[in-house]
TrEMBL record:
Belongs to the G-protein coupled receptor 2 family. Mth subfamily. It is a multi-pass membrane protein. It comes from the Eukaryota. The keyword Transmembrane helix applies. SUPFAM superfamilies: Methuselah ectodomain. The chain crosses the membrane at residues 138-160, 172-192, 204-227, 247-271. Residues 135-307 form the G-protein coupled receptors family 2 profile domain. PANTHER family: G-PROTEIN COUPLED RECEPTOR MTH-LIKE 1-RELATED, G-PROTEIN COUPLED RECEPTOR MTH-LIKE 5-RELATED. Its main location: membrane. It holds the Pfam family 7tm_2. Keywords: G-protein coupled receptor, Membrane, Receptor, Signal, Transducer, Transmembrane, Transmembrane helix. One of its GO terms (biological process) is cell surface receptor signaling pathway. The gene is mth2_1. This is G-protein coupled receptor Mth2.
Amino acid sequence: MEFCEGVTCIRKCCPLGEAYDMTNYRCVPVDLINKWTPEFYNKDTYAKEIVKEYKIIVGFPLNCDFTSLSPNNDPPDFFQLLSNGSLYVKNWHLSLSSSKYCLDNFIYEESVMVEAMVCFPQPKAEGSSMCHNVGQKLYPSLLLISSIFLIITLTVYAIIPDLHSKIQGKCLITSILSLLASYISLATVQLWSQTLSSGWCIAFGFLIQFSVLSAFFWLNVMSYDIWRTLRSMKSGRDSPAGARKRFLYYSLYAWGCPFLIVIVTVIMQFLPKYLDRSNLILPRIGEYGCIVTREEFVFLFYGKKEY
């Protein structure tokens, strides 16, 4: 994670040493001539200024719909990178924080131009800003509180042999582990999404998808096991070897299926972005947020309509 406390932070669209290829819609390595270097301007006078220490965060703007600004092609798109790390968009009379923009060289067929990807300014309804700010802190806080109780439950089941020796207890422990991983990851993303680098954002996206799916698959396993236990009460209990074998099958199902789904997501994540313009659906984690948030993708990658 990269934090921006006490230091000027700027956001670069592509990793260091790369620029954005507008022909193939992806980041590509570039030589020193086409390497992007930031030019800063004073936040009060808007005159050019030298900033010796700054931190670069890599990735597109998070948690917003964004558009491109190309002042070379469209003069009203004029912008300046200010010495405090914010981006001043003259036509909007607005300064955007480093989480709301990214800058880079954009490679066209015959030219290379510095452009910005910026979040659309959101109209502020009365009271909505306060509710949004409270929600941004409240939801992850509740997730962390829930995680504490999950840890307590996990500890109790781990300490008492009668609880974790049975197959139902083992299934519950694995389900709790999945929920715990998903809650902590979600809280981390919600609290620090603005300071996460693109790589960490994508990694958390995959972890959240795997842990959430695993939690639901283990719930499915526990439901089936309860049904199976009630159905076979008259025939007697499984032997220890039979119980271990059954738990192995459960694990292959509840861990394996989410793993296969995440592998498909990883493959589709790193396909060329121009394919997204066709009928192929791409997750694009790390561009709109650290999780799959676009509605048509949520159904495919999480198995439900809203997340």
